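Following up on my earlier thread - several people asked me to post the actual chain instead of describing it. Fair enough. Here it is, all 419 residues.
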Amino acid sequence: MIKQTANVRLAVICLAAASVGLSMAVISISKLLLFIFAAATLLFFERRSVGSPALARTYTPTAVLVVLLAFTISLFWTTAPSADAMGSIAKYGKLLLIVLMMALIQDRREAMYALGAFVLAQLFLMLSSWMLFIHLPVPWATSRMALKEFAVFSSYLDQGIIGAVLAAICWHLRHLAPGRFGPHFMVLAALAYLCNVLFVLNGRSGHLVAIAMLSLAIMWELPKRYRAAVVLLPFVLVGALFLSSHKVRDRLIMMKMEVESHSAHAQPNTSSGLRLHFWMNSIQMIARHPVAGSGVGSWSTEYNRIQRDLDPAHKDIAGNFNPHQEFLLWAVQLGIPGLLLLCGLMLAMIRDSWTMEKPYARVVQSTVVALAVACLFNASIYDALIGDFFAVTLGLLLALGLTANASKPSAMSAQPGAI
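Reply from S.P.:
Thanks for posting it. Predicted structure:
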């Protein structure tokens, strides 16, 4: 019975790991199964038979629970309708996936199986995008952007960020690939991901995340006395990509034109213009409620209130909208403490990586940096799919690094993984 339960648990974990980045239906089913199995585990099985031994020595689970508690408490003062408030609580509930992956993965063998399922599914996603690019039939592509933007299941924005993170994962964990040529294959996969993001997909967020991942990878390969060059690396890489990639060049030029147009005419009818418009309104909302915020799910309500003051004929935007910036979104809902909570959540994951061996520490730190960069231009935790991707990926990578420590205590103490 215990063996059968372990097999089912591992199958559910692998399904959750493989699902992110695929269609929303697959992600939703895998999340539901993961939550059901976790609940059944807590109710019907002994705690000692299911808990990861490394979980109690980490900061991330506590940080996740504090964040969810803060959003829940803000229900008492939120200005949002009940449906919007509860909908936002559900959206942030995906952060529990980090804790569940850490708790349910019990040893390095299970973490490696989950990592294998994760990487294979993401390779399928990347190869499908390349097939679309060279005009091969991809009947499983469901995105409206499939034929022109080469996104398979979601948008080029989501897929670009995912591809940049996978490039970092393949590079830093290349030593885990089996076989004589396994590490070489992982390096080629990392290059294929980067080329897909920088030369095929249009997402500017993906381009920026890829530049951040490249900068970190180069920094860690440099001798320590030269690592200060990481300050200049992003600018050098942007310049090189501006000259070599028409995708990057065109999107940067478009962003410059959109920002100039918004500055001159204040017309938020472009991607960059809308973001600037939403961000400036968000700053006004934070100024009104800097200490406790206006409550969970309140961004749309507060935005509509500001716009109606300016124009009584304003047509309200739908509930559960966001300003395309995660840091501002948390600050609107929970005030300045909300901004600190988001930073604290990211720092907790960085802190947990310090005890890992270098490859695992670096891949966790790279993924957290990718999340931080993505959150500067999108609500990358609040949004569906990309938020699920980051939650599952971070939970899996944290579990992998911590279980590797548990199986190799001497290596852990010999090679601390601080940045």
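The mean pLDDT is 86. That should answer part of your original question.
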